[in-house]
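WARN retry 2 of 3 for item q-0093 after timeout on previous attempt; input resubmitted unchanged.
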Amino acid sequence: MQDQTFSRLAFCVTLASWVAVSCAPAESDSNNDGGGGGGGGGGGVVASGATTTGSVSSTSGSGVATSSSTTAAGTGGDNSGGSGGAEPTGSGGAGTGGWPEGAIPMGNAPVRSAGCGKATTLTTKEYTISSSGQNRVYYVDMPKNYDMNKPYRLFYTSHWIGSRWQDVEGQDFYFLKPQMEADGEQAIFVAPSSDGATWQEKDHALFDDIMAFMNENVCYDTTRVFATGFSFGGMITYSLSTNHQAEIRAAVGIAPANYNIWLPEKTRKPIAWMHTTGMSDGTCPWVNNEGQKRGAKFIALEKAEDNGCTIPDNIPTSNGAYSCYDFKDCDPEHPTRVCTFGGGHTNIDGNPNWIPIESWKFFKQF
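OK item q-0093 returned
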């Protein structure tokens, strides 16, 4: 694991010239916030290599979910999720339902996607999907000896600027896959490619379309969909986290920023959140503009507020070895954490690399 990690350090450094423009300090940016809500699921979702087509609505829907051997029909919509069921089951539209929205208890029984119990044609390879009138590519990494009756965790992993899904797969999905395998766990990993160098508004619709297809075609736990990404990938992860709280259980942004990325109208609903920032990062800094609340510090404060945490006078940070701060008094379902260290703009730090270790620790608690 460690030899693999550090053999790729030089590879990451060579991409610094690309990464540096992803969230470089800027005093003004017309895309820093506001705008319309995230795109809804697209109709006619089609992936190459599969025979199933489907459609999804961002405002309404119905479904059947199974948990603890209990099956219950559910209806619902984008954020309200499903209704019905004798226990917290049911799903509808793009949301999950049964529990009060955003209050899925820690350690809950899995909620099965519609694809559970059905044979799948998906294998580990690149796929194409129609989204926002374009053909987009994404990579799916399926568990070894995939079990169609087992609801797996699903990770949505977004690449940094100037890269593609191949770069994320080449890092074993931000080194999460070997961390999981060391614990005897497997997951479904999805890694999309951007349309060009940067993630954009239409990539919210891409997330919806890919997830609608995955829901019908593989077995995963709809209450354990996780998102992560580095640099511009961390920024789209943050962007998705501001209005996809019903779909994404928890997210980890690696060196993210809250500007120079399209942001939807924020729902300000809770979501479990963690991010990492090097205190010497000049690309996506801890503070870019205090008055405009630009920088990773303000992501942490926003998530802490949304998650009901106590806001400290000053967030403890580290300019040396990494240190993680867990916000206090947060909603039990929405832990909120920020990890800082005396490094720069990177997703590889320390020996062993602590970033995937802490990321997996954060994800696996759900």
